[in-house]
Amino acid sequence: MKIQTRRGFRAARNATVAAAAVAGLVLGSAGAAGAEVNDQNRIVSNGHEVIVTQEDTFINGVPPIGGSPLSREWFHNGRGIANIVGPEAADFEGSTFQFGYQVAWTASIDGAIGFNWTSPELDADVGYGYSDTVEEVWLKNADGKYVDYSGAVVEEKDRVQATVDGTKDGKKLWTVIEDGGEYEHQSTDLGVGSILPQVTAGIELSQAPGIEEIVVAEGEFDGDFKEVQIANVHGAATGVLGPVSVRPFVRVITDNGDNVTTYGQVWTL
What we know:
Helix content: under 10%
Shape: elongated
Number of helices: 0
Strand content: over 45%
């Protein structure tokens, strides 16, 4: 396991021609049960451990549409996770989550590599507030003094609850005090937005062998957890001679510039 940090380095170098939108779905506070951890890396930033993980990574090479011998095509599935561990981890703000690839090729003829990704985004609106509460209505006379059901004036400790008909067996009266109760969770509204393709990225290839890094998607997050489900990210290379190698990565850059990246295995297509 390698440890790396680049203090003060906010933006990773990449050769992205076009990159757009927010990365991913915020799905919960823990990874999927039984997930296969493909790679993990960590640093310590401001006394907190920042951990990035790739799980269940699978890149499936498929025959290219059109059947050109100079084309390569593939689909990527998996999961990227960021965890921040420490006494004030939940208060972290402005961390950047990146997902992308290192790509390598042997030679090309006016070649290019591109990626696209459709990523619905989960929106959650969580409501908190004070609950209502109720209190007894105490039986009093016209002078505002406590009385019993016979009308006799009594001390406060002997007061009785008022009823609809003023008798002991009558239906008791209550008054509602709005927002007079406990501060509590009251509602959670979930929705899915951004259902159109929102992430594209690409590079032009040199004729000579080369390696480039492409950030496919990135976005800021607050708190101690971020999980991105990577589902059928489509990649394609055109005008290439020989194989294309792809290495996925997940990166977190904290608000103070500390940087940790996990690189997965190389997939040759």
